[in-house]
Amino acid sequence: MNHREEVTCKILTEKVKKGVSWQQVADLIGKSKEWTTAGCLGQMTFTSEQAEKIGELFDLDENDVAWLQVVPYKGSLPESVPTDPLIYRFYELVNVYGTTIKSLIHEEFGDGIMSAIDFSMDIQRENNPAGDRVNIVLSGKFLPYKSY
Asked: Which intervals hold domain Cyanate lyase C-terminal (predicted)?
């Protein structure tokens, strides 16, 4: 385990101990709950000001706060098929609908990709009498492949 993973473990431990929600952390630093959560889980880089606030909230030391400001290694999933049921459903979704999504994006935009860098995500509860639904909106800039 690298030190950034240790900082993530400290954050998660303190989050549970203090009963803090991701929305509360996001409100503290002025960012979306989605981006803030990704950052606290080790996938984004915080500014000095953001890292200090997170450090105070989660009782992190100055070394931990410094690690929150280091560009992380991206990719939080294991290299094999994920076993967590919720994460596996996203794997399954891409496995089943990936070629459909790719085909429809190429038909609409041309040959290219959806950016995960120039990107936003919104996760909301959608009330439904048949059972509440998870509404996830992923919005990424289209980046066309260039000829050269």
From this structure: 76-148
